[in-house]
Amino acid sequence: MNMSAAAANQADHGTTTETADLVFLLRAMQSNLELFGRLQAEQLMAAAKSADRQIAQLQALQLRCLAALRRRRPDQRELACELALALHITDTRAGAMLSAADALTERLPRTLRLMDQGELDLYRAMKVTIGTSRLSDHHAQLVDVLLEPRLADKNPTQIRKATAYAATKIDPDGAANRMTQRHSERRVMLHHQSEGISQLTVDNVSTDKATAAYLRIDRIARSLKTGSEKRTLDQLRADVAVDLLLTGKGGVPERSEVYLYVDLQTYLGLNNNPAELTGHGHIPAELARHIATGPDTTLRRVITDPLTGQVIEVGKFRYRPNIDVDELIRVRDRECRQPGCPRPAQSCVTEATGSDPTDTDSTLSYCRRHRRLKNRADWTYQVLEDGKLVVTTPTGETAESTAPPLHDPQPNPEHPGQERLGA
Q1: Which of 274, 225, 220 shows the shortest CA–CA distance to 242?
Q2: 111 within 8 A of 104, measured Cβ to Cβ
Q3: In the chain, what's the furthest Cα-to-Cα distance?
Q4: Beta-carbon neighbour count of residue 236 at 10 Å?
């Protein structure tokens, strides 16, 4: 009996009533969305819970597939790049899923069984995999046994705390070593969000220093909270923290370089088209003008092809001739040309596919990780005549990337080029 027949047989005998109800709702939704307006609140909640169980079971199935792939492919970073292309996610997310698949199939089988049963989804299960990642296999398995009856009805925060407690209880002598290891992985992370807003975090610093830093920020913020100050304490703390990093006594301010793409009319205030900040994405016109008119801002003219919006020339100021092609490539590409990679082009290297290093169509920007991947024998990187990159993975997945145009194509232009400003 095949899988479809088996599922139908189970539904006929009433052993999977919940699944059958969900399948019915999915089919009904495709034909009549108004059905949900006629369901009772209890029915909607039951359907939401049923969907959650099915999602968890499908996630468990996906993890088992990834674990099987992982056993055949020893290079996890390479596999993460391939998985990112296949699932349209970031390399970081793909790597986290592969790590979770390894941990759940090899060290935490009881936690994975809860996913098989629909009792635990991937997000909550990863609180266990992360919390046990620094334990030995033996200690991780003991934590798995201890937590099994305690996870199904817990939210992510409760699971994280329960896992930390269980890890300390099972391996108290290793707690200090785990703290030292985590502290060695301290880093600053920049997460770009929408509308010109970003999140800056400092991870894995010691609690005493983090607390002292917060108290200093809080103390300065409270001293600024006078009767005429309209900002909230939260806003003041954020502003104080950034000001301390940029102009405070902690170090000499450094000048950094970012690429901002804004059309000439927006720069002059004649319209409010969104601009683009490399590595972040689109930002409002008001913020773009604020950046472009800063005291340390340098403007450069960028000429684009009106038919395609592609960069064809970058204004030359002080650059030597052999740098001009490299600069044009970075301005044109904006980000690493690996499909889906958000790393800014100014942090990448440029590399020609053909023998002519001045051929801009065949020269692309790659971050270090994807440049290494490009040179592997089982990956294929083909650059077409128009500069389009076609990537083929070892399992036959394909993805494409094209340098994004700076403006919408304009048919039958009256002038040979459209000027933009790069700040």
Answers
A1: 220
A2: yes
A3: 79
A4: 19
pLDDT, one tens digit per residue, over 36-71 is: 778 788 888 888 888 899 999 999 999 999 999 999
279 Cβ neighbours under 8 A, 6+ residues apart? 192, 258, 335, 342, 343, 344
317 or 188: which leads in pLDDT: 188
Report whether 151 contacts 161 (CB < 8 A): no
pLDDT at 363: 87
Tell me which residue of 64, 134, 59, 119 sits closest to 143, measured CA to CA: 134
Cβ neighbours for 335, distance < 8 A, ≥ 6 positions apart: 278, 279, 341, 342, 343, 344, 345, 348, 365
Q: How far is CA 378 from CA 71, 73, 78, 84, in A?
A: 17, 12, 10, 16
Question: What residues pair up with 351 in beta bridges, in sequence order?
Answer: 364
Return the structure tokens found at 299.
């403007």
List the one residue out of 81, 93, 159 whose CA is nearest residue 120: 159
Three-point CA angle 171, 176, 180, nearest 5°:
130
Phi, psi of 369 (to 5 degrees): -60, -45
**Cα(186)–Cα(204) distance, integer angstroms:** 4
The reply to whether the predicted model has a pTM over 0.90 is no
Query: What is the amino acid identity at position 313?
Result: E
* Closest C-alpha among 116, 200, 123 to residue 154: 123
- Pick from 322, 374, 329: which is nearest to 350 by CA? 329
CA 390-394-395 angle, to 5 degrees, is: 100
